[in-house]
Amino acid sequence: MPELKTRWDIFCTVVDNFGDIGVTWRLARQLVAEHSVDVRLWVDDLRAFERLCPQIDINLSQQWQEGVEVCHWPSEWPVTSAADVVIGAFACQLPHDYMDAMAAREQPPLWLNLDYLSAEDWVIGCHGLPSVKYQNVQKYFFFPGFQKDTGGLLRERGLLERRQQFQLSSAAQQQFLQGLGIERACDAQLISLFAYENTGLASWLDTLAADSTPTHLLVPEGRVLGDVERWLSVGELAVGALHVRQALTVQVLPFVRQDQYDYLLWCCDFNAVRGEDSFVRAQWAARPLLWHIYQQDDDIHLDKLEAFLTLYTKGLSTPAAEAISGLWRSWNAGADMAEHWLATRKHEAELQNHAQAWCLEQALQADLATALVQFYVNWI
């Protein structure tokens, strides 16, 4: 892929705390680092961004972070020229003055709507198609996805090799965990929990506590902490809090940067994740996972859940596929988890092998940043 001396503008409105900015920040950095393009990332909520990138100065309207020009998206739009490639992340509405600037260019920019990740079949038919038009500027759909003829998934160069090397080194894992204050017992399974509020959590924690195998549950700061507090019958859980109930140890971790979160996922035997960015990163961890999908009106998110399960469970034995599918469905319904978790545990080895195979299968596709660059090259 040739280097592109082009300028890209990526627009992000923070809707769900960290998911939208997590994806766009990761994409912006990769475009700069691997494709040598100039990127401006426009963000409307720098406080949410600060959690992912602590170096951010929330008081600055413009700053540089890891080669990316980060700009605060103001309520009153400044006079600025339009870029060669314009990405509106997740159907966010661009400022009207900026759209006029796009139309005023001698050569109209490539305008893309980077849509939400989905495994639904219709995505393949819509990926890359024209969308609306503003004056002389045509917008196109761009869908990340798990199948050929979609935009693929975010994956930095060398990611899987770094992950494999880390997972083969007990010393590297121990050093990382100790840096977070985690002392893992040698016989305990390590599980990470990053989720939205969920009424089904108590039944899962009950099952883990009663298990013959000890579990060390790592809970980064986030929305699910309230449910953990209620199960423990304690007040507000602070970072570093450690509680033991029977076979279950619960430990609260700080909200970590994206690169550290990767290492956390790589250390764990099983990862419960939420949203989009952490969902993709858990797949690159090549470990069994549990996805808490973002809830949408009329339960249309459940169609997305089923579409992914249909793809993901291919190649599994029928009992293993039924076990993991039942676990995901009960989790996303806020239902009792006990029966499905115990069924999943019976197929632990098969699910682990399958997670590794799925990771390698997805890595055969072009990554999302490369697919975007190739789309631009083909367009011009």
Automatic annotation (TrEMBL):
Q: Does the keyword Transferase apply?
A: yes
Give the UniProt keywords, A-Z.
Elongation factor, Glycosyltransferase, Protein biosynthesis, Transferase
Please, which domain of life does this record's source organism belong to? Bacteria
* Bilayer-spanning residue ranges: none
Reactions accelerated catalytically: dTDP-beta-L-rhamnose + L-arginyl-[protein] = N(omega)-(alpha-L-rhamnosyl)-L-arginyl-[protein] + dTDP + H(+)
One Pfam entry name: EarP
Which family is it part of? Belongs to the glycosyltransferase 104 family.
- Protein name, UniProt field: Protein-arginine rhamnosyltransferase
Identify the gene encoding this protein.
earP
